Amino acid sequence: MPLNNTVSVILPGVVVAVAAIVVFLADLFLKRKGGLAWIAVAGLLCGAAVAIGQWGQWTAGFAVWRVFTGGLTFGRREAVVGFAGMIGHDRYALYAVVLFCAIGVLAVLLSDAYLARRQAARGEFYGLLLLIVTGMIGMAISTDIIAFFVSFELMSLPTYILAGYIWRDEKSTEASLKYFVTGAFSSAILAFGLALLYAATGATTYSGIAAGLAGLQLNGLAADGFLVVAFVLVVTGFGFKVSAVPFHSWAPDVYEGAPTPVTAFMATGVKAAAFLGFAKLFLMAAGADWTHWGHIMIILAILTMVVGNVLALPQRNLKRMLAYSSIAHAGYLTLGIIAAGKSGDTLGVSAILFYLAAYALMNLGAFGVLIWIRARREYDYSLEGLAGLGRTLPWPAILMALFMVSLTGIPPTVGFWGKFYLFTAVIQADLTWLAIIAVVMSAVSAYYYLRVVWYMYFREAPEGAEVTEEVESSQVGVITAVTVAALGVVLVGLFPGPLLDAAEGALRLLIGG
Amino acid sequence: MPGGDFHPWFFVIVAAWVLVCGLGVVLFRKIMYSAVSMVFCFLGVAFAYALLNAPLVAIIQILVYVGAISIVIIFAIMLTEVQHGGYDLFFNRQTAIAAVVALVGAAVLAFVALSSDIGQIGDKSLTPGLRQLSRLIFDRYVFPFELVSLVLVAAMIGAIVLATREKERP
Q1: Using the beta-carbon criterion (under 8 Å), do A87 and B121 form an inter-chain contact?
Q2: Is B94 exposed, middle or buried (0-12, 13-18, 19+ CB in 10 A)?
Q3: pLDDT tier, A495 (very low <50, low <70, confident <90, very high otherwise)
Q4: What are the angstrom distances between the C-alpha of A109 and each of A63, A446, A485, B60?
Q5: Do A223 and B165 touch (CB under 8 A)?
Q6: What's the pLDDT at A76?
Q7: Could you tell me the residue ranges of all domains in chain B?
Q8: Chain B touched by A28 (CB under 8 Å)
Q9: ipTM
Q10: Mean pLDDT for the stretch of residues A46-58
Q11: Residues of A numbered 249-308 whose beta carbons fall under 8 angstroms of chain B's beta carbons: which are they?
Q12: Does 1.20.120.1200 match the CATH number of domain B8-125?
């Protein structure tokens, strides 16, 4: 086992980055741009395969965290680190890599026909998407604030471009500009916060920061106010990226304006990477320092859950509704970080890992169905436009209903298990009142999710909503992606065991595992 | 007052310079004046680095900010000049709120920095010279350094994607 071989540590990320370069180069020589999508899919699958192959070799996650929190001892203490502590390659990171690659594959499948229809099928799209995935992987494997920040930028920059990819569409351009301005602003705030953390501890690695924070306490140095300011700035950067309230105002406009596959990817992939990257940063670098950031996070989570769900209620545009729903889900997910931080247990983080996979399946599926409907007939993403869909387009309608039920969190779908594990972790961290707020808010969310189902099955189709002829481009990619997502929602919903084992195994060594 | 081998008043002069130029950036009504103030502001920050015994950072500040970024900003202003609107800033109604936010932010930062002991943390013996910096970049920080090259690839290709307006494909 090549523990000291630092290249093997970053191998999955390297595979995806190389695939991006191959796509850019192949774009010059290939006449038919459809092949590029398959190169991208192959690259992502290779990245995931490498990560799965490494699963047995690496130790469970957050090796450094448990040293400083004195929490549960699970697995060996030494972290597998490369590049002088820049990279902590553990099963947590490997789980993240597989998740990001899977989201990437589904997003590519959703994009292919969509881009052809919007006459924007250019090779750069897939290359930039792969670079985003590389940045996402970087965020999950980084154990150093500089590597973290550069990965964060590598993830963010191409996302701004993809949001404005359909340049003929004014809304897409506006979305890109808005996303860029708020994104650049939040990056600056995050960088400032990280700089203050460095100033307070004199270290850039997570373990060094954790040691520095412990040293501050040990030597009785006063830095409370300073640390609170630093963490407020870091949490603000986090809040912008995951569209947590009160930093959410960009999300509905950007989600509505961006090309739908890009929206789906942003809502699932970029958000997942932000959660996994920041969870690692908060818990590894400052897990023992919970008091300085926990309360800010709790306020953020409550605001996000309440405002996201309440503002989703009046939305009549499905992309905007899903944007607010994605804000609400960011609120639930933040609870996982809070629970893990408060209890020093890994349960909250396992719940986040499981929830992110579940959320990716159902959200990519829902956006995929929207793309599918648009390929079959005129559709403006309005709720009214869905009326009578159960009769005119039975397959998209039934899958949409499935995804909405899952997003609400009704058993036996995967959405139920995601919420169940997350809220259990919150209750076990002695935060029952937070779990109650979350459950009440999930009940509120049933209104706007199930309203979609009601429109599809109990409203008569308006005149002229007939299915148009099949458009010239093939819908194989979209249908495959939506089917895979639907199968995932149902199968993992019925048999959550394996995925849950993986999510828990990412953080603690299972018996015989 | 930060440590270094200079009379405290030098730092006060440089700080005042940076402050005045910074105010100029936000208060001038012609955008070109703002841009030039920003160049001088960058220059003042470079002086501050030089005073704080970081000559290399000062030189890089001059090369990158005073040199490259200023030119890019002035080019951007020239290329986006609106024919009828002139250089005037279009929205300048948030002055009062922005002033309050900036002052409160500065006060909070100053307060927490002065009331804490973080001045005692960190390695004082470090002199960030060329040798130390290059050793750090190519040894300890080689991973983020290589990652930056991917960020540059993404930025360049992204700029081309946004700027290209290709004809409809058949």
Answers
A1: no
A2: exposed
A3: very high
A4: 36, 29, 12, 45
A5: no
A6: 37
A7: 8-125, 129-170
A8: no
A9: 0.86
A10: 85
A11: none
A12: yes
